[in-house]
Amino acid sequence: YYEEVISLTYSLTAVNISPRMWMMFHLMYELFSGDGIDYFSDMISVFYNYVTVGSSEFLNDGGQRLMALYNVCSTALTYETDVGDNLAVKLMEIIILQFRGKVETFLCPAIELVAKRLEVGKRTSDFLIVCLDLFFACLLHNPQLTIEITQRLYVNEQKETLLHYFLANWFSDMNIFISLHDRKMCLIGLCSLIQLNQRPPVVAELGSRILPSCITTLKALSRLYDMTDP
Questions:
Q1: The model's pTM
Q2: Which of 51, 107, 121, 127 has the fewest CB atoms within 10 Å distance of its CB?
Q3: Which residues contact 169 (CB under 8 A, 6 or more apart)?
């Protein structure tokens, strides 16, 4: 039953979102808040539609829909299993990219959710990539604020800051970014570091590596575009 409802809702929100389908958003959220966590992987595409297809209206309700999706992501990232972790982080990234300059108050809670999940030991390579993509999206949105937030959050008992953790993993191997989207986000992150007015020591130490990394990533992107051209 749930699968059919979710599939139909996805189809009805794929091109445009009518007033009735906006009402359906709240029903979907109620469904998730009940026992819908088991269907999160099915529901995620519907939530993407509301954020992207309905971007012109999504924030026009005083932030209720934004808060609802934050709660969805929080539930997924604190659930006893980690099956929805990557999807939740990706949803937060999409929100930040879609509403650049409009959801600044969303950055801190989104980053905090990621830090908490990393703190409890979630360190798979695919999770690292989506977390870095989120980091890059936040840098694009507000680089200075993102640096400040990630400097005061810790990811392990050794008191390693989230900023240090992200930078160390990012610059240790940029070949982990394989897809077109991931490489674009990597380049966005590098360019955001270049534009920082004030660089904390952990960023300043990487100063000589940022521009060469930009060039390498740009070349990798160019090759990928060449491969995808018909």
A1: 0.94
A2: 121
A3: 128, 132
Nearest-10 crossing angle of helices 40-52, 64-77:
150
Residue type, 180: L
Write out pLDDT tens, residues 77-121: 998 777 789 999 999 999 999 999 999 999 999 999 999 999 887
Nearest CA-CA partner of 117 in 100, 136, 130, 105: 130
Nearest in space to 51 (alpha carbons), one of 1, 7, 6, 103: 103
130 backbone dihedrals φ, ψ, rounded to 5°: -65, -35
Give the span between the Cα atoms of 127 and 125, in whole angstroms: 5
Query: Does residue 63 come out as left (phi exceeding 0), alpha (psi in the -120 to 50 range) or beta?
Result: left
Closest of 59, 88, 91, 58 to residue 76, by C-alpha: 88
